[in-house]
Fold Beta-xylanase.
Amino acid sequence: MKLTARSVSLVPIVSTVAAAALGASLIMAGNANAATTLGAAAQQSGRYFGTAVAAGRMGDSTYMGILNREFDMVTAENEMKMDATEPSQGRFTYGNADRIVNHARSRGMRVRGHALAWHSQQPGWMQNMSGSALRNAMLNHVTQVATYYRGKIYAWDVVNEAFADGSSGARRDSNLQRTGNDWIEAAFRAARAADPGAKLCYNDYNTDDWSHAKTQAVYRMVQDFKARGVPIDCVGLQSHFNAQSPVPSNYQTTLQNFANLGVDVQITELDIEGSGSAQASNYDRVTRACLAVSRCTGITVWGIRDSDSWRAYGTPLLFDNNGNKKPAYTSVLNALNAGGPGPTTTTTTTTTTTTSNGPGPGDCTASVSLNQWNEGFVATIKVTAGSSALKGWRVTTTLSNGTVTNSWSANRSGTSGTVNWTNVDYNANVPAGQSTEFGFQGTGSGSGLNPTCSAS
Ligand code: G2I
């Protein structure tokens, strides 16, 4: 970065503060402080950059190296779908999903859950069901899976691809749709009850062009849900683009219009067929559109290398088959580094406070991780045993300006002011040095919780 004569000559006529700001902006323009990975670059504006991960590729060191280096959000490509998690009715299997979730969380990446209810990739037993039996089976599936992952998922695609393509603006016909038009809101309510801390999204494709009937239909559903208090927090635009379905010129308008309904918007499965500078420029446009919309909270690409893609023939991703960065990668990184306003109506702050309770056996400490937005918060409290195992524990929190509306994995007394929490049966025993977590959701502010822990 060169300081030009023009910028130097400005210094004497601006205040010290302005001069400092000028210096900072020049440094940014010269990219001296630019982030060098997608996740870090997205974080500069409070956003995330994610990818789809396939459990079957987790033994591939090139794949894992790129995943661990570049991304801070993960979506299981197939492993959390209905056929994977409930292969026979009432028998839930989470092995492959857990491998992905545990890897992500151990690396500090967050997880988007995909997907709780969908007409596709249903297990065989569900494909043959109808009516109230199917409705109940679907709701049970949503409840069980969202409960199993409670506290671990940033956002769930609660319902995926429920609208028809083409000009009808109608719901897609499916066995789920035939259980009644309210199946979508029923799924959202079940998901909220099961995991009140997760953002709940409706996710679809071909909803990128504002003028399309399908986009308009999804918009009207979200508008209706917001008006009637159906719990929905976000809309996912899959954004699979190619020559037949290019990045629309009104893409940013679409993102903004959804956001204006009072939901977050996420680009959930981005891939753009093509190569070279044409592909790079399309990726640049999509990234900039998200950055220009304050409630566009993050972007996920649908795979890592071209060869990992569901449509590898279209070379639609940011890394080539050998794991090398493509021009598209550089354009996304540069666009992210150029920044944009962070989410305004939803600010996520994570604060950790640790309070110890003196030396000796049976002690514990408690720390809080707080996700605060304008109207409310979710607090996750971690209880860690001291030098000997806990057989039961009690945590006290202070809620000066907030009220608890929901809690999980602990017994509670009180909803505001001093609120006391004790273990439930299954998390009473905590081995020495190990931790367990409980959580709660509230309205107002969750700051100043200052948890203290004692053995009981
Ligand atoms: O089709 C692209 C995406 C559209 N939106 C929803 C996403 O969930 C969907 O992902 C794709 C996966 O990328 C594919 O990997 O969903 C496909 C199925 O709908 C996935 O394909 C399936 C194959 O159809 C199966 O034959 C295969 O066993 O992947 C499975 C696991 O490799």
Observations:
- Confidence is low (pLDDT under 50) at residues 1-30, 344-360.
